[in-house]
Amino acid sequence: MGKVNKDLDKDFKSVKKESITNFNKRWVIIIIGFIFIMLLGTILIFKTIKHDVQNWEICQNNYDGFILSYPKDWQKKIIPGVATILSKDGYIKLTIFVQPLDKVNAEQYILYSNRSINEGWGGIKLKSQKKINLFGYKAWQFDWIRTRLSPSDLNYYREFDVIIGKKVYTFMLKSDQQHFLDATKDLNNVFLTFKTIPAMVKPDFPSVPMVKREINIEGQHHRVNIPSGKTLWGILNPHKIGQIKYFDNLLPLEKQLDFKFQFLITYASLDTKFNQTELEQIYKDNRILMVALQPWWYGKKNDTSLIALIQGKYDFILREWACQFKNLGDPVFVRFGNEMNGDWSTWSAWYTGKDTDIYKMAWEHVYNIFKSEGAKNVIFVFNPHDRSFPNFKWNNYLLYYPGDKTVDWIGLTGYNNGTSYPGDVWRDFDTIYDPLYRKYMNNFPDKPFMITEFSCNEKGGNKANWIQQCFQHLSTNYPNIKIVVWFNQVDGKWQYNIDSSSQSFEAFKKGLENPCYHFQAIYSK
């Protein structure tokens, strides 16, 4: 019996070993077959791609570190260190951003950037969101649509957020309903040619030649003359929006400073109605006005009125403003949707799926209405904030620029916030404006500049010295800045007012005595 059991055991082990061997062989064959099929599929794909792309153009971005191919009939634009844009009119626009992950991880960056898509702001409808393996890369895919805003509007989107090391490569495609399927196939084909390379070049903003610019603007009743080497000072002083009533608080201040501010600014939201008599009074007193037209209902959270504005729902408001400004007959500066690169502005692309073209569509709509109403005296000012927030590539100010044809002046805005809040940093005047001026002069060399609003907080450093540096360097180091506007108000904990201390007030008063700033610029005809 023992021998029989041993023989059975031996036979069992032999059968078991043979079964395991056969099982392993089957799995090896299956795995090899699967790999073969995958390789064959890949080869077929690449053969197809090779056939399609053999006459494609090469796009090599040495700023962001990648190379790919794209169809020959597409246009290419590289904004150094910002974006690569590939497009074909009426069919596709593919924008590629390369975002280094310095202070956030990939998921934080992707979800924060796409919050408007997930929340459905501005008429966005999310079709799908998923994590995918994109030809061997970890990636997120978003598909969404939004309301079509014009016959040529591309309102169907697909986005790949590809995670490679400590960077996210975003491929944001948009097309229309008719061409979306073909466009997504092209996106896949383009991506199959994509590979990373070392980023060898950094955007360079060299020092610019000293520009000598004189400003002459003719109106019906007044003319503006800002000679070369001089800078016109303006002010944003406490006043009632719409009614304005600037002189109630302004005249006593001007008496103390022994200085007349010939350039005034105010704000307007969609619920603002201007008092025409008050507007006329400003010009009768040999002053001119700049209005920040902000496309929202004041104080409304997550307001995406920018979409409704493009659709024409607020044309009656825009036409009323245009007619009021036209009737003044003299120069009126308009900065539409200022600080669009800050997420505190509801006209930022953060609210519209990162698509800065929507802002540009709104700008063009406003511009065309003002021109159609004959408001030729209106001067349009493009005015980003000096620091984009979030400081992501898709939010760069250059992506919002409407174009030279509809922009007359370039506005600069940079504040020294001091240290009143956590995260605030004291910044000297030149620390803010020297790099900003160089960038803008390289990007907008043919436009006159103005500082549309700026100021210095009292807390965190020596405000009087800051003001002194500003007056010393403004007219000499920044000759293309022809107008500057001081924000003379307390804003929360930020003490931006001129008289935040006696030392600051005296420094400001002394600075205005400089002949570069103390001159007549507005003349009656």
Automatic annotation (TrEMBL):
One MF term in the entry's GO annotations? mannan endo-1,4-beta-mannosidase activity
**Where is the chain membrane-spanning?**
27-46
Active site: residue positions: E339 (proton donor), E453 (nucleophile)
Recite the UniProt keywords alphabetically: Glycosidase, Hydrolase, Membrane, Transmembrane, Transmembrane helix
Q: Which Pfam families match?
A: Glyco_hydro_26 (PF02156)
Instruction: Write down the superkingdom of origin.
Output: Bacteria
Q: Report any one BP term from Gene Ontology.
A: substituted mannan metabolic process
Instruction: Enumerate the spans annotated as GH26 domain.
Output: 206-521
Keyword Transmembrane included in the entry's annotation: yes
Concerning its family, UniProt says:
Belongs to the glycosyl hydrolase 26 family.
The protein's name: GH26 domain-containing protein
**Protein source organism:** Aceticella autotrophica
